[in-house]
Design goal:
single chain; about 130 residues; mainly alpha; elongated
Length: about 130
């Protein structure tokens, strides 16, 4: 009974959406295995787990995209009035952009599915140069 309850809590968390989707999916399978429970006994199908994984991938990608956009917007509001561009105020975005691409590849969704495109992501990288 403990393992079934744990699985149900994990499924609730996944259904709400979480950036730690990989961890929770792994935990779901571990708890089901420990309790000798099938997915059908948990009221879930493999297709739903795949959709929850996709949801997690998209959530991570969108959050990273929003993070960069907010930082750039914030910088534009506070940049010096003399027109000087202080690129040292920008943190390196390459890691964040790489994560967006990674999540899109893992989730097999397009950049347009999260409201961006290749041009915008490349523009973030140009801020570092």
């Amino acid at each position: 009974m403990f393992h079934k309850r744990a699985c149900q809590k994990i499924l609730e968390r996944l259904r709400l959406g979480t950036e730690q989707y990989e961890f929770f999916i792994e935990r779901l399978y571990e708890e089901a295995h420990k309790g000798q429970l099938s997915l059908s006994e948990l009221g879930v199908k493999e297709g739903e787990i795949e959709r929850l994984r996709l949801k997690g991938c998209m959530l991570v990608a969108r959050k990273n995209l929003d993070l960069i956009r907010k930082r750039i917007h914030s910088y534009k509001k506070t940049r010096p009035q003399n027109g000087e561009t202080r690129l040292d105020n920008f943190p390196p975005y390459k890691g964040i952009v790489d994560q967006i691409y990674k999540e899109a590849q893992k989730g097999r969704f397009s950049l347009s599915d999260i409201g961006t495109n290749e041009e915008e992501l490349l523009s973030f990288l140009q801020l570092e140069n």
